[in-house]
């Protein structure tokens, strides 16, 4: 079996080759190589091999390397210019697409939360039951102010009111205060009669209310 | 473009200065970086993946990524460290893909038991030749290249970067994202294995 000193000496060959031996180890190895012929021969062989490895020549690159690279870059640039918005988005640093996704999700959530689908925030009227919308379409005027605001604030001046088209929504209390279509009424002609109160028209100026009912505006700012 | 704008001739600029100039859309700077690094990278990639065409593909992809991510380069790291990191990532992906595709090939040196080695079909040199240790000797070069190809991947990478490319241990540690001590210990083992592999041929 190989003496322990020889094993230790050989373990230091690699560091010696790299010039990374600490002084105590360097002194030990020098001393050992001076007295051990086998280890000295092995060190000489080791050094010779790895100095030769360092002389391995670089590999020649093919003549078309740069031309091909330039073509690939041009192709990529062309694709980038043609790129769709999502490929541009994908190139942004990670937090930006995440932020964009969060905004989209928030917008969808807010839309669902505060649109007319929420009974607690309804504030709408199925105007098609009484006014100008075609027989198949019904205009609804919605108050888009969030439900957490006081009721008075929702219906006061300055509210944003959206007019949307949607399916008729029969409401018993609405019918109680308004005149609805009856057989024989002309379709598309505004009906006369009292506007129902408490469904979004309260507090609006007359011209705004008319615009909403006639279906000529989608969104407007009430005065 | 002349390549001699206000910042001076590209040939005199450091790698890092060239990269900053390329960030400012100076194409000549990129051309110079390609000129400086293409052979070094192809040599390293060839010795890691063991196939010339694949090595060129790896380096093409490396430069493409440099171009694509030029805006991300910050002058806090050596450019060579950055580009070697990219090249080795691409090379390792290539090795993984190759490994998936093909079966283990002829093991000329009998280095069985290295689970992560990626053996390629290398030419088996003529053992009787026993050439002198002159790497200009074609046969010896072939023996060396074959032995490098037989090293397990984890040893081969550090071996190529250190002994063939001449990078410092600090740079290799940064490129491979591992402690310097681990790099040195792998290098030690890589050299031992390399000697074992060439011993039958160089005596």
Please give a structural write-up.
The complex is a heterodimer of chains A (223) and B (203). Chain A has 223 residues and is α+β, with helices and mostly antiparallel strands. Chain A is built from ten helices and four strands, in the order αααααααββαβααβ. A four-stranded antiparallel β-sheet of chain A has the order 1-2-3-4, covered by helices on one side. In chain A, helix 3 crosses helix 4. Chain A is elongated, with a radius of gyration of 42 Å. The C terminus of chain A is likely disordered. Chain B contains eight helices and no strands. In chain B, helix 3 crosses helix 4. Chain B is elongated and about 55 Å long.
Summarize the structure.
The complex is a heterodimer of chains A (223) and B (203). Chain A is α+β, with helices and mostly antiparallel strands and 223 residues long.
Number of strands of chain A: 4
Unreliable residue runs of chain A: 118-178, 191-223
Give the distance, in angstroms, between the N- and C-terminal Cα atoms of chain A.
101 Å
Q: What oligomeric state best describes the polypeptide chains here? A: heterodimer
| Biggest interface, residues from each chain | A-B, 29 and 37 residues
Strand content of chain A: 5-15%
How large is the share of residues in beta strands of chain B? under 5%
What is the makeup of the main sheet of chain A? Answer: 4 strands, antiparallel
How many structurally independent domains of chain B? Answer: 2
Average pLDDT score of chain A: 66
Shape designation of chain B: elongated
* Low-confidence sequence ranges of chain B: 104-115, 117-131
